[in-house]
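Summary for the steering committee. One of the milestones for this cycle was to obtain a three-dimensional model of the protein with shikimate-3-phosphate bound, which we needed before selecting residues for the alanine scan. The sequence and ligand used are listed below.
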Amino acid sequence: MKPNIALIGPMGAGKTSVGRLLSVALNMGFFDVDKEIQVARGMSITEIFQKLGETYFRRLEHEVCLQIPQMQGFVISAGGGVILNPQNIPLIKSTCVIIFLSATATTLHARLADDITRPLLVDGDRLETIKNLLNQREPLYIQATDFTIKTDKKTPKQCFEEIIDIMSRHGCL
Ligand code: S3P
């Protein structure tokens, strides 16, 4: 049995809120890859993107992923772009059951309407950007994941319950 659970999926899918519910219920730690990056660099994600660039951010993201094979007993929330670097996937797979939290572009757009913390959504038409990111990334999430949970019109608690159910039925808990 894998010792960790990793949540992947686009910005606004609910990785943090669902991940927190899972970690409390399963008595596991909560490990947020973005938070680790911010602490390591002493800067917000927005500042890192603005001052150091996305390529540098992706390198930091990969460095945090290098810790995952040594981890045990964590629910891991990975940033929406973690699947862009193919080297990250085996690192996550090595110790995690992977859950893809999916949502339509319309759902994500509504959930992120007031968000100012996502640098990729600052410029241009937000819905268009979200659609483009989904088109590019959805196949990568699907390829990487063990289970997919559709989150549209569901609360974090409902998503959490579905994850517990699907993992129990597959002997992952
Ligand atoms: C990103 C998602 C963000 C964060 C950064 C880039 C992405 O994480 O890593 O803004 O490329 O989709 P969340 O998915 O937790 O918002």
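Key point for the committee: Helices lie at 15-25, 33-41, 45-52, 54-65, 88-95, 105-111, 126-144, 156-169.
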